What we know:
The chain is an alpha/beta fold. It has seven helices and six strands; from the N terminus they run αβαβαββαβαβαα.
Amino acid sequence: MVLAALAVFTGCQQGGSLLRTPPAVQFRAVNSPIIPRSVSKMAKEVNIKVRIMPSNTKPRRGAKRLRPTFITIHSTANHSSTATAMQHSRALCRGAFSNKSWHFTVDQYMAVQNLPLNETGWHAGNAAGNNNSIGIEMCECENRGHNHFRTWDRAAKLTALLMKRYGINQRRVVPHYHWTHKNCPTPLLTNGKPGPKWAWFHSRVDYYYRCINNGKSNR
């Protein structure tokens, strides 16, 4: 199943207190005028490329059915100049990450879909996160002309799109930190925890969600 053919799922699997809706992130709403977009228009802006990992790779062999109720944001912690979204996709497809898999890798140019969205990945560090969330990895490559803001902004657009498609409340857009207290996504945390930079990211998600939802938030 690829993004263009999503079904809306509801409900929540067992996983204890981590699956309770977290407190709302406090942020200042973006004041820019809303530019209405259709879902298909937003998908074009995100520039989604589909490169699904082979079904015989280890992470996919152990996958379960996913009915996502969370979206988990990560960063790759790979600063190589060639560590783009497409390069990460190639590595996933050839089995270079034997114990890791996630649904999207985002850089400043595109978002590459690596897994079907009705299938669990290995990205959150525990069963609750893996079994209930879509994983988005943001690239941290360092090369001439790379713009991290554009990567984060594209990830915010993708997140808003997934929220809309699955009916996911913005409070359930969480950093990897939520599941394991890992310092991830490092560029959007403050002293290893959600803070002002994470609130800024939520403000971008909220803005783009309002653009595809008749100006209404889903907080």
